[in-house]
Design goal:
Layout: H1 3-53, H2 67-92, E1 103-108, E2 118-123, E3 138-141, H3 159-165, E4 170-175, H4 185-202, E5 210-214, H5 216-227, E6 235-238, H6 254-260, H7 265-270, H8 282-288
Helix pairs in contact: 4-5
């Protein structure tokens, strides 16, 4: 194709891209106006009641607010007090994972060659629950969303509970609030690979473990399986949006944000290995041997 036609084609593609962005912006602006108007109409009554509550003519006594408003302020402050007490108790016991099951720590990620704030724990089955040590182990990676296990193990009816009732050994990759100095995503991936190897050492006659990742844990699970395909079994990624570029033109905003922010480039720049000699991928481990 002549250079002139190539430049014309590129300009046409850029113009189509700008048209998609314009259509997307107009669509979301219209939706925002509709939602804003609906919410304002819905809350208008509450706003009027609040304005009346602060009306000096409706105050109870000189300079006093209505009794109901004062009671709600006291209850709100009491909620803040109780939340602070819970935080203090949580810190005093070492910010333990919010799991609905008893567990024992198997591998402390802070002791690995590339220290991270992740650890591997084994879930202790409730009384009366039988486990097959030769059954396929389950490893669940905690999502980096707050400090909770979510659907993984926050309740009995969870991924942990279902796997325990099936007689499988269950492990959980938990994390503490503060990362280790120099910690990187590559270091976390290497630690999780070591977790899987430890589980395989403990269950040598079992199939390769099922690895479940929820939300951000889904990204971690796929990174783990991609860099260590020789040790991972079936993988499950729940709620992990992996292809931001998917979707229809002019309709899904994340595919455009991914392009505007450079796609994978920021993650590649900020996610370097913590140690250039650390054997991260399977091929690098074989080369190191």
């Amino acid at each position: 194709m002549p250079p002139f036609l190539q430049r014309t084609q590129r300009l046409t593609e850029h113009q189509r891209y700008l048209d998609d962005l314009g259509a997307l912006a107009r669509t979301h602006w219209q939706k925002w106006q509709e939602v804003y108007g609906a919410n304002f109409a819905k809350n208008q009554g509450a706003l009027e009641a609040l304005a009346q509550a602060f009306d000096p003519a409706r105050r109870v006594g000189p300079g006093r607010v209505p009794d109901r408003l004062a009671q709600r302020q006291i209850l709100f402050v009491d909620c803040l007090r109780r939340r602070g007490d819970l935080f203090i108790r949580h810190e005093e016991v070492g910010a333990q994972p919010v799991l609905a099951f008893d567990f024992e720590t198997i591998v402390d990620g802070g002791t690995l060659a590339c220290p991270v704030n992740y650890s591997l724990v084994r879930i202790t089955p409730p009384a009366g629950t039988l486990q097959r040590e030769t059954g396929r182990p389950y490893i669940i990676i905690d999502p980096r969303a707050g400090h909770g296990s979510g659907i993984g193990g926050f309740k009995d009816e969870s991924e942990v509970g279902c796997a325990l009732r099936g007689g499988h050994p269950v492990y959980f990759a938990v994390f503490s609030r503060h990362p280790k100095p120099g910690q990187t995503l590559a270091g976390v991936c290497a630690a999780e690979a070591e977790f899987v190897r430890e589980v395989r050492r403990r269950h040598p006659h079992s199939p390769k473990p099922v690895i479940i990742g929820n939300c951000q844990g889904g990204w971690a699970t796929l990174l783990l399986a991609t860099t260590n395909p020789d040790i991972t079994g079936p993988i499950v990624a729940n709620g992990a949006t992996l292809s931001y570029w998917a979707g229809q033109s002019g309709k899904f905003p994340m595919r455009y944000l991914g392009g505007l922010y450079g796609g994978l480039l920021p993650a590649l720049i900020t996610g370097g290995a913590c140690d250039r000699d650390a054997p991260i991928a399977a091929g690098e481990r074989r080369a190191a041997r």
